[in-house]
């Protein structure tokens, strides 16, 4: 019987690296991600197949994946794609289990992020989902700007639910990661959104991809967990975040802060603690 209190951790070195100011050598990326593969994360969001002009830091994703020790790891690999061409490349790798697509409920951000509007992005999701089915992969769709946006565009749980419903019931998406792209979520928003979506789409695995300031995670994590969320994206040292936020302190949910929250709330930590300490030290060196 599945443990209903168990959490699923997705470590996101891809999100942590993509906005890094200087290019991280390919060999260093391989060494770091291989260390993460030993920890017991459910999934490693390791790279992306997008235009190198858009994300130059991840232009070496194909070279990185060739050297990852994924076969000896229980963790699955996830790659971000933004269109059919990227998906066609990603599905060609046996090592990749998940393809992730950033779908924004903000028209402005969808254009900025993938150079396509919401309507065109629905078509892209359909194409990518079809490829996933053909190649026995799974798709994760990130509901970006899921808790609000900085453009003055309308936002509500109902808007997020509308697009989520279409992604699930029209296109067959089974995993949605609700993403706070600019760090504007509060406990009420988290409770309302997760409660609404889990009630309307009970067959869907819902995840949380929070961007936030250091030290602010606990109330949001407690609200998400209480509302039924068991899938959480993290990044060591809280690195990453959205360049659009214009705030260097708004990074990803810190893996160490998240595991401290698990301990405080007597929730089982699925990670290998010895390997965790080594990875934490490696992260301090890696992100310099």
Describe this entry's structure for a reader.
The protein has 288 residues and is an alpha/beta fold. It has one domain: TIM Barrel. The chain is 40% helix and 18% strand. The protein has eleven helices and nine strands. It has an eight-stranded parallel beta barrel with strand order 1-2-3-4-5-6-7-8, surrounded by five helices. α4 (84-90) links the parallel β3 (76-81) and β4 (96-104). α7 (157-169) packs parallel to α8. The longest helix is centred in the middle third of the chain and has 17 residues, at 118-134. It is globular. The mean pLDDT is 94.
From the 3D structure, determine the CATH topology.
TIM Barrel
Which CATH class applies here? Answer: Alpha Beta
Structural category: alpha/beta
The total beta strand count reads: 9
Give a short overview.
The protein has 288 residues and is of the alpha/beta class. The chain has helices at residues 13-17, 26-36, 61-65, 84-90, 107-114, 118-134, 157-169, 187-200, 217-226, 255-264, 273-286, and strands spanning 8-11, 43-49, 76-81, 96-104, 138-144, 175-180, 205-212, 231-234, 251-252. The protein has an 8-stranded parallel barrel with strand order 1-2-3-4-5-6-7-8, surrounded by 5 helices.
Can you tag this structure with a few keywords?
eight-stranded parallel beta barrel; 9 strands; alpha/beta; TIM Barrel; 11 helices; 288 residues
SSE arrangement:
Elements: E1 8-11, H1 13-17, H2 26-36, E2 43-49, H3 61-65, E3 76-81, H4 84-90, E4 96-104, H5 107-114, H6 118-134, E5 138-144, H7 157-169, E6 175-180, H8 187-200, E7 205-212, H9 217-226, E8 231-234, E9 251-252, H10 255-264, H11 273-286
Parallel strand pairs: 1-2, 1-8, 2-3, 3-4, 4-5, 5-6, 6-7, 7-8
Antiparallel strand pairs: 7-9
């Amino acid at each position: 019987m599945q443990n209903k209190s168990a959490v699923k951790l997705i470590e996101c070195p891809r999100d942590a690296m993509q906005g890094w100011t200087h290019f991280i050598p390919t060999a260093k990326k391989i060494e770091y991600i291989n260390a993460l593969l030993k920890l017991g994360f459910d999934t490693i969001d390791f790279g992306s197949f997008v235009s190198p002009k858009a994300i130059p830091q991840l232009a070496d994703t194909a070279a990185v994946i060739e050297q990852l020790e994924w076969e000896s790891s229980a963790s699955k690999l996830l790659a971000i794609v933004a269109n059919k061409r990227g998906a066609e490349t990603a599905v060609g790798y046996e090592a990749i289990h998940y393809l992730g697509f950033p779908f924004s409920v903000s028209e402005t951000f969808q254009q900025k992020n993938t150079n396509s509007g919401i309507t065109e992005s629905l078509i892209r999701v359909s194409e990518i989902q079809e490829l996933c089915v053909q190649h026995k992969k799974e798709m994760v769709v990130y509901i970006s700007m899921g808790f609000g946006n900085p453009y003055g565009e309308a936002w509500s749980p109902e808007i997020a639910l509308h697009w989520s419903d279409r992604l699930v019931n029209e296109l067959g998406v089974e995993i949605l990661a609700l993403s706070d792209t600019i760090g504007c979520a509060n406990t009420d928003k988290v409770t309302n959104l997760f409660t609404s979506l889990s009630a309307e789409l009970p067959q869907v695995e819902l995840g949380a991809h929070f961007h936030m300031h250091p030290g602010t995670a606990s109330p949001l994590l407690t609200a998400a967990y209480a509302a039924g969320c068991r899938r959480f994206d993290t990044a060591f040292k809280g690195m990453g975040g959205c360049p659009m936020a214009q705030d260097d302190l708004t990074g990803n949910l810190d893996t160490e802060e998240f595991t401290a929250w698990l301990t405080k709330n007597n929730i089982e930590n699925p990670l290998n603690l010895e390997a965790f300490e080594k990875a934490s030290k490696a992260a301090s060196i890696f992100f310099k």
